[in-house]
Amino acid sequence: MGNTAWCKCGKCIPMPTRDESCCCTEIQDVAHYFEGDVICITTVDDMLDMCMEENRLDFIRCSCRYSRAAYSRDRNRILRKASYQAFSTWAHSYLELGNRIPIPSCMVDLIRKKFPDNQQHYVGFFWSSDYPAIDMAFDF
Ligand SMILES: [Zn+2]
Ligand SMILES: [Zn+2]
């Protein structure tokens, strides 16, 4: 915690809790992507296509949980959540309840940079409106 000594891919960021201090190289389900030049999951094209494309992530808006107003106000936060969910689904093929696998911190960093918080408020390593990525991903 507070450092990235546990990271083997070189792209992870320090996370506030041990649970979140997870490197993509620890995730067995994506191990087959690590070949050739790929040393971090954040550089896998297939993942970028499935988890980072806004028009794909739009599914979350269609799930009727968000009003138009909420969506325009909290757009990036909602997209981050969609992205975490997409990653979980992509990495593990399906979401297994009760068997939550953390989202690697390099992914969390990538997603937060792509969909930054409107207010840009940091509290420690946290973004103001975010709770741990793993909880966001599984909060349907
Ligand atoms: Zn890492
Ligand atoms: Zn990584």
Kindly estimate the percentage of residues that lie in beta strands according to DSSP: under 5%
Mean residue pLDDT: 81
Q: Radius of gyration over alpha carbons?
A: 15 Å
The geometry reads as globular
Please outline the major beta sheet.
Answer: 2 strands, antiparallel
Compose a concise summary of this entry:
By secondary structure, this protein is mostly helical. The chain has 7 helices and 2 strands; from the N terminus they run H-H-H-H-H-H-E-E-H. The protein has one domain.
Question: What do you see in this structure?
Answer:
- InterPro entries: P2RX7_C.
- It comes from Xenopus laevis (African clawed frog).
- Pfam families: P2RX7_C.
- This is P2X purinoceptor 7-like.
- The protein has 140 residues and is an all-alpha fold.
- It has one domain (24-138).
- It has seven helices and two strands.
- The protein has helices at 45-51, 54-57, 59-62, 68-73, 75-92, 105-114, 133-138, and strands at residues 122-123, 126-127.
- A two-stranded antiparallel sheet has the order 1-2.
- 29% of the residues are buried.
- Bound molecules: zinc ion (ZN) (2 copies).
- The site of one zinc ion has 9 residues, from loops.
